[in-house]
Amino acid sequence: MKRKYSDRANWRRVLDKRFHVSFVEEPGFTGYVSLFHILQVRDPLWKHYDEKVVCVADAGYKWLQHFPKNANYALTSMYDNKDNVVQWYIDICNVQGVTDHGVPWFDDLYLDLVVLPTGELYLLDEEELNEALANGSVTQREYDLAWAEANRLIGEYQNGGIKLLNIADRDLHRWE
Length: 176
Prior knowledge:
Blueprint: E1 3-5, E2 14-26, E3 29-41, E4 45-49, E5 52-57, E6 62-68, E7 73-79, E8 85-98, E9 104-115, E10 121-124, H1 126-134, H2 140-158, H3 163-167
Antiparallel strand pairs: 1-9, 2-3, 3-6, 4-5, 6-7, 7-8, 8-9, 9-10
């Protein structure tokens, strides 16, 4: 299991960035919110979903991350250089925390959900989770937790949408 930090301090693709973080208690959300503003990159990052190709990181892009309190997921809303959502990325996680320097982190449980602005939902990395269970990187309890949380979020999406996706935009300009 990998620990992932919201400041992406070691991401070599990004040559210059700004990073902000706050603890938020507002209607519909309590937890940490961070903004990773990509100012300069070595090269853009593209993702493929079926026949769709999506640029998710380039100069001027913003990754707004929500860490809901007591949840087993973190949401990254990825915006282009015109503040249009290019995708929402949901990492299923075991636990979340914050470093001594105030940087939110989570222990990744491999399964991820991607929602595109056109409405498509993708479940990713099932094989990585299965491999992690087989090699002992995750326990049976963690494996079951990952699937339970992914299935819960898929169900929530199919029954009207994941609420956090609808309120994420309000935090995009919090630090401007």
